[in-house]
Amino acid sequence: MTDTPAPARDYRDTVFLPKTDFPMKAGLAAKEPAILERWAKLGIYDRLREQRLGRERFILHDGPPYANGDIHMGHAMNKVLKDIIVRSQSLMGKDAPYVPGWDCHGLPIEWKVEEAYRAKKLNKDDVPVDQFRAECRAYAEKWVAVQKAEFERLGVMGDWADPYLTMKYEAEAAIVGELLKFAESGQLYRGAKPVMWSPVEKTALAEAEVEYEDIVSTQIDVAFEIDSAPNAPELVGAHAVIWTTTPWTIPVNQALSYGPEIEYVLLADGDRRFLIAEALIDSFFARTLPSRHPGGGRDPLTNGGDRGEVGPGLRRGDGEEGGAAILWRGKGSALTDATVRHPMHALGGFFAKPRPFLPGEFVTTDAGTGLVHMAPDHGEDDFELCKQYGIDPVFAIDGAGMYRADWAWLGGQGSVINKKFVSADGPICTDLREAGALLTASDDFKHSYPHSWRSKAKVIFRATPQWFIPMDRSDTESPSRLREGLGEGSAANAALDASPPPTPPASGRGAEAEGNGATLREIALDAIAATTWIPARAENRITSMVQGRPDWVISRQRAWGVPIALFVNRLTGQYLNDPAVNARIVEAFRQNGADAWYADGHQALLGPDYDLADYEVVKDILDVWFDSGCTHVFTVEARYGEGTRANLYLEGSDQHRGWFQSSLLESCGTRGRAPYDAVLTHGFALDGQGRKMSKSLGNVVDPLKIIGESGADILRMWVASTDYFDDVKIGKEVLATASDAYRKLRNTFRYMLGALEDFDESERVAVSDMPELERYVLHRLGMIDTELRQAAEAYEFNRYTRLLTDFANEDLSAFFFDIRKDSLYCDAPGDIKRRSYRTVLDVLFHALVRYAAPVLCFTAEEVWQSRFPSDDSSVHYLEWPTLPSLDADDVVGRKWHEIRQLRVQVTEAIEPLRREKTVRSSLEAEITVPSMLLDADALAEAFIVAKVTPGDVVTVTRTEFHKCGRCWRHLPEVTVDGELCNRCDEVVADA
Predict the structure, then answer these.
(1) For residues 643 and 636, what is the distance between their CA atoms, to the nearest angstrom?
(2) How many Cα atoms are found within 13 Å in the side-chain-facing hemisphere of 377?
(3) Is the peptide bond before 415 cis (omega within 30 degrees of 0)?
(4) pLDDT digit string (tens) for 791-825?
(5) pTM of the complete model
(6) Measured in whole angstroms, how far is the alpha carbon of residue 167 from the centre of its chain?
(7) What are the strands, taking DSSP E only, across 130-271?
C-alpha cells in the first residue's frame, strides 16, 4: 500500500476576514431617491437648524435662477458647489442655513408665454394685463416646482418648503420699498438717453441681458456737402465723408464730429472734393477703389454694373499722397462752426436743417474717415456730445424698430435690424445712391455685435424715456428734465406730453457709509475694495466694470414684473415723494402683490391730499436685475435681522455684470455698503473638448441624464474635483475619471466597514500603547485634518477632494491597510497590534465619513447607516471630527516618511523579479537595505517581505523560507510549506 501525503489543511475558516453587507457596486441611481425620501421624513434641514441654534451663523445667499425650463449643467455645477460649501460649514459646527430662490419676473418668462400666444395666433397686447400677468405667474410656478425637484435630486439641502420667490407678495413689497428708498433720497430720474433696446421684445435691456456674436454688416461711406466753414471757406461745396456700419442711423443724423487735433485733407475728384483724415487716405481708397488694390473688385463709385449711378468716380491724380491731389490740409479745429447739409435735405423739414461740425474727443483715426456722423438717438457718445450743443433726440424709430409713420424719409418702414432693409441694395442705400451721396456700400464688414440673449435677435441703441439710477450724482447735482430731449414732429411730442417726464425731488441722496464717496459709483468702489473676492482676480474685473458703467437704467416696457410705482405730477413733471403715499403703496403690494398697481385703487393709494387726475401713473416695470438685487432684503435681512449681511455670494463669472453688481449697487444705494462679505466666482461647464455646450452642436451634457444613469454623487464628485475657478470640462472621459475616484473611495469605506465588524469600546487601545505605525497614521490624519479644514475654509474643494482621495488611496489603501491586513486577518482578536489597528480604523472611519459627507452626501449617509443604523440619525448631523491627541513632535512622522520612501525603492526592486516569475509575490523576497530604521522583523512586516538585512544598497533574492499555510508568510520556523508559523499555531490552538 502506497503512503499518500495527507492533503494540506484549509485554514480559511480560522482567518478573520472583513465582513460587511455594504455593496461594492454603488447603484446610486436607485438608492439616492430612497435616501432623499428618508431625509424628508426626518425633516433633516429643520433638525439641523434646531441643533445649530445659537451657533455662529454662515449665510450663503443663493443667486436666483430663472424659473424657466429644466436645469442644465451650469445650474447643477452651481447648486452642487453651494451645497458642498453649506454642508462643510455645518460640519465645522456653524449654523449654515440655505434658502434657495428663483427669479420669477421678466422677459424670459414673458417670452415663453408670448410664444404660446403666437402659436394660437394671438397678440399679447390684446390680452388684459391682469390675465397676462396671471399666466406668467402660473408659468413661473410650474417651473419652480420642476426645478425644485431637480435641485433636490442633486442632494442640495435647503429650505425647500419655503424658498424665496421674487413674485411672492412680500418680495414684491420689499422690491417696491427699495425702489421708493431710491426715489425718496433723490437717486432716481427719468431721462431720454440711448439704451440697449430689443426691437423684437420691444423693451430696454440691461448689459447682463445681452450677448455678443460675430456678424457681417453693411458698411457705407456717405458724403455730406459742406455749406459753411467760417474758418476754412475753401471747404464750402466740398463733401465731408463719414463711414458707418449702421446705415439705418443716417435718417436720424443731426451732426458730424471731428477730432480737433487730427490732420484733415481735402482730396480732389474732378468736380467733387472730399474731406477725410490724412491718416486714413489709404484705407479710404482701399474701400472706394478696390480695383486699384490687390484682391480688390469692382469700383463702387462707378457702380461696377449693378448698383445704380453713384456720381463721378473718385480717382487718384498726379499730386501728393500716392497720386491723390490734396487741395487743403489742416487740423480739425478749423472745422469749428462749420456745417453740412444732410444728403436728403431736399425732403425739407428736419432734413433741411444744417448739421454742425462738433469737436469729439472720442474721434480717432483707427478706422473710417476720421469724421463721425452723430445720431443722438442711437449712440452714447452721440447723445452726450449733441446734448452739450443743445441737440436733442428725435425719437424717429419706434419700439419695433420701424421709422415713425410721420417721418419724412422711410416713414413706417423697417425694421432696422432687418438685414435686407439695411443692405447695400436696400431702401436706405438706394435713396442715398440716387441722391449722389453714397460713395461705397458693401455687405461684408465682420464684427462683434450685441444680441438679446433671450430672442437671439440684434439689439440697437435707442433713445427712449427711461428711469435711471445715477452713478455720479452728488448732493449738489440736480437731474435734468426729460424735456431737454423733445422729439421732432407731432408723434414724439404727443407721446411725451401724454407722459410728462419728472425730475426727482430736491432732497439729498441716499445712505452714505462713513468714509465713502458722495456718489453711488464711489460708494460701490469702496465696497468692492472692502469685499473678499475669490479668486482675487475677480476684484479687478468688477472694479473696471463699475468704474466704466453708465447710469443704471431700471425701467422696462413690459408687463410681468414689479411696476415702478410712482405718481408723476402732470404739471411739474416731478414724481410724488410722500412717505405716507409710499407706505400705502408698500402695504398694498404686501397684501395683494404687484398686481395692486394694475387695479383701480390709485386714488386710495394717493389718499385725500392728492387728486389722481393731476398725476400720471407710471406703467413701466423694474429691470429684473433690480428685483434680484433686492433679494438680500427680503431673504437675508427679513429672515435673520435688519442689517444682516451674507457671508458669501457664489455664482458664475458672468455675474460680475449681473447679480453681483446689481446687488452691490442696490445695497450701496440704500445701505451704503455691499450686501456680502465675500464673493466666489466659478467658471462655465464646457463639453469634453472645451467647447461651449450648444444644442446645435449636439454636445450638451444633461445633468439629469447623468443622475439617472450614474447617480448624483458622481456628478458631485466631478464638481468637487474640478478647478472650478476657471471653465471646466465634462464629458465621458471626465466622468469616467470621477467615477474611478468615487469607486476607490467607496471601496475604502467598504474595507473599513468590514474590518470594523463588531468593534466595541472594550477593544480600544490608548494612543500611547499603540505600535509606531498606528501612531504614524494618526499623525498623518492630523496633518490631513488641518489641510482639509484650511481648504474648506478657503472654499477650495478641488484641493479638499484631492487631499481626501489621495489620503485614502496612498496613505491608507496602498500603505497602512496593505501592511496591517496580515495582523487583521491572522492575529488573535485580543492581540495589542490588531486591537490598535482596529482602534485607528475606527478613528479613520469617523473622520473620513465626515470629511466625505459635504461632497458625497448620499454615499456618506449610506456608509454611516451601514455601521450605525438608526431611524432618526444622519451623518449630516455630525460635526468636524475630534482626533486623538498626539505628542507635539513629529519624530514618528519623519521616521515613517523615510520608511515609506525606502518601501518604494524595495517595491521597485522586487518588480523585475516578479515579471520574471522568480518571485510570485513580495512575501517570497528577501531584501537588503542601507538603513535599518526598524528592527528586522518590523521592517519585513512593513515591506511585506520574508526577511530584511542590512546592506549597502537595496537588493532582492528569493527566500529559502517555507510558506505558512495560514498567513502565507515565509518564515524561518516553518519547515514545510503548508505548516503553521508560531503565531498562527497559537491562534488556531486557542480558537
Answers:
(1) 9
(2) 24
(3) yes
(4) 999 999 999 999 999 999 999 999 999 999 999 99
(5) 0.83
(6) 23
(7) 164-165, 189-198, 203-204, 210-228, 239-244, 255-258, 263-269
